[in-house]
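BACKBONE STRUCTURE TOKENS:
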Amino acid sequence: SSENVAHLMVSDAAALAGIQLNQVEILLDLQRTAEARKAMPPTEKITAKDRQRAAFLDAQLLLNEGHPAQAQAGFQELINQPQGQALPLHHSAAIGLADAIQYQGKPDEAAKSLLQFLQDHPDSPDLAAIFQRILQWLPEKPTATDPVLERIAQWITPPMRPAIGPISTAGAEAVSAWPVTADPDGQSELLAYSLYTRGVGLRRVDTPESKAESRRLLFRLRAEYPDHLLTQQALYEQAHWSLDQGDADQAFAILET
């Protein structure tokens, strides 16, 4: 019947729109923005189920096309209306919002938007992408009381009670000098990223006090998260700092721990 034909046409159009959104996503990943824009389906063809995803992709396109203010508005609308959103989409929108703000020459505001999002979503699956941006947007020479570094400090809880037993004191740079701890329930990812980001950020402050705290934080990271990817990054950072100071022996000693 004509009604069945019409229903099939609508279903086919909706399916095609979903396929086109998949194409847009792939083209964006390949940084082929112009082709991605051409692949965007018409708004009227997008089903209610795909509407938020389409809005996110449109905001990404606007950002890639050099329209950060419009992109910011699009991402902000997604943040303001989380109902029915898939978790990855909502968290990606928060990152997109920060990128759009930073694009407009406001890195401090962009970092603060991510910090506020983390305050509400401390278990975000996108911690790596979030903290990478926060560290990237820090000033080259922050102050000791930089508001971003201070905000991160609130997530650095006191270390757990050290295990009973002797503690090695084989030099102030030895990771073994930090009390060994065990956490059968698993450690907080937010704590790991906070330790690393504040530790690296404080090194940029370049005062004896900030360098000492930076060492303590990264040693704690290495002791409490020995298998974490950030631990390897912390080792390389500390070795690089030792090389900058002309201490090659210390750099190699750090890498061998």
